[in-house]
Structures are given as C-alpha cells and as structure tokens.
Design a protein that fits this description.
single chain, about 280 residues, five-stranded antiparallel β-sheet, 12 helices
Length: about 280
C-alpha cells in the first residue's frame, strides 16, 4: 500500500499556521491537532475529510450509554463500543505503517499505534462526558478514567481491555524493564500527547532514510509547539543538510550553536564546524 504523501507547499504552510495557532490556544483541541498532523502527512486529506473525521468522533460518542456510572463503567462502555462492536485495536504490524500515527487513517482502518487508538478513546469519551485522560506509560500509551483514588486504566491497543492492578506494571516492565512509579499514572496534557505522536512519526521516518521529508515536517511541527526539546533544532539542521539545503541547514546549525554555547562551548564549537562543512558543500 502506498505511503501517504504530503500536500503542496501552499497547503502545507496553511496547515502549519493552523497547527501553531491551535497549539498556542488556551485549550488546545487534541483531535484537531492530530487531524492537522494527518493533513500534513496526507495531501488527500482536505477540509471535507477533516470535518468528516470530527463528525465520526461525534457519532461514536452518541452511541455510548448516557452516564453509565463510575470510572469502570465508562471504561467497559468504551471497550464494548470501540473494541468489541467497532473493532478498534492494534497489532505489531501497525508499528511499520505511517498511517498508524494519523488519526483520520486510524478512524478509517480501525487500527493504529497505542497512542492514536487512545486518542480515539479519549475524544469519543470526552464528547460523551466521561472523566477521561491519556496516561503516557513508558513505551505504551493507555487511557485513564476517574480521579487517582478511583482510577481505572484501559488499553485501547488491546481492544480496550480494562487493566487489573498488575497489568500496568507488566506493560512498563515489558517496555523498559523498570518498575512502575505512581507518577507515571498522571494525566498527559494534549500537547504532550501531540509531541509523543510526532516523536513516533520521526522514529518511523528515521528507519526509512528515503522518507526524510516525513522526518522534516514532523520535526518542524514539533518546533511549533510552545514547549519542545531544543535539540530538535539540531535535528532539523541535520535533515536540511541531508536533503541538500546546505544554506538553511548551516544557518540552523549556527543558531543551535549559539544556544548550546551558553552551557557547553565545546559542543557549540563542534556544531559550528558542522555548519562550516555544510557551507563548504556549496562550492
């Protein structure tokens, strides 16, 4: 199956403007941010497609029972609707597909990475009034319902299976070998979720050097978020040089060297040498 291709430059610029505006709003809309990521990845996703995805989330929310009860009842209701009836779940092969990180494709295929399936769970549940939030366990994103003292976790990648006391520990140990810390069970903010999704896109592209275009737009969207790792500027610079844009790549390296120089002059000097090498490739 053909991997999605990005839109033309004019459309891309408009999507990035909207993404930055939404990310800096008082209450960022997670579903819209994810759909804008999808539109940046897939040039066939137009305005009608963006609207259709939101309408589908609304429609799914309308199929949930009215106020089914406490946190566990909400988790069971979501599992029955999305996992059992609608067939949303994941499989190992989904990690090999860019579509697994794109919300509109996850809605269409009913397959995706844990974090995107969790976005579906969260957005459907939120629209129905559930006390829902994402839980960014190391290596495996899940969904939480209710306050800490009543918290119930569900794993959308496993069809919404409601997790028992030791399940979260098993997931964390399997991903990292570390023990579960209570701090890992706190709610993930929407922009944290979006950054983690873009990190997954970057990881997908890093394994496919021929898709450096995907890595570049994922880095550039990450840089539009109000809070992001400074090293992403270095990664962007490297991608620009890799793609033959030596002037912009060198300028970005020099800008990054200025940032690094405040704490590590040796590292800054190495980055400046890389910028010089990039400029020399113009001759």
């Amino acid at each position: 199956m053909r991997t999605p291709q990005p839109p033309p430059p004019e459309r891309s610029a408009e999507l990035r403007r909207r993404f930055a505006e939404e990310a800096r709003s008082e209450r960022p809309d997670l579903s819209m941010l994810c759909l804008l990521v999808g539109a940046q990845a897939d040039g066939t996703l137009d305005e009608a497609g963006l609207d259709a995805a939101q309408i589908e989330l609304d429609g799914l929310a309308g199929q949930l029972p009215f106020r089914p009860g406490g946190p566990r009842s909400w988790a069971v209701a979501l599992r029955e609707l999305l996992g059992d009836r609608r067939g949303f779940r994941g499989a190992p092969v989904d990690y090999q597909r860019l579509e697994s990180s794109l919300l509109h494709e996850v809605l269409r295929r009913r397959r995706g990475l844990p974090i995107l399936l969790s976005v579906v769970w969260m957005e459907v549940a939120r629209r129905a009034g559930a006390p829902v939030y994402g839980v960014a366990l190391p290596g495996h994103f899940v969904v939480g319902f209710g306050p800490p003292e009543e918290q119930v976790l569900a794993d959308p990648f496993d069809g919404g299976r409601v997790l028992t006391g030791g399940d979260a520990q098993v997931l964390v140990a399997g991903a990292t070998g570390a023990a579960l810390d209570p701090s890992m069970l706190g709610p993930a903010e929407p922009l944290e979720v979006v950054l983690r999704i873009l990190n997954n896109v970057r990881a997908w592209a890093a394994a496919r050097p021929e898709r450096s275009d995907v890595a570049l737009w994922a880095v550039e969207l990450s840089l539009l978020l109000p809070s992001h790792p400074a090293r992403l500027r270095y990664e962007r610079a490297q991608l620009l040089v890799q793609r033959g844009d030596f002037v912009d790549g060198a300028a970005e390296l020099e800008a990054y060297a200025e940032i690094v120089g405040a704490v590590d002059e040796g590292a800054a000097a190495r980055v400046r040498r890389q910028a010089h090498a990039a400029r020399s490739m113009l001759n």
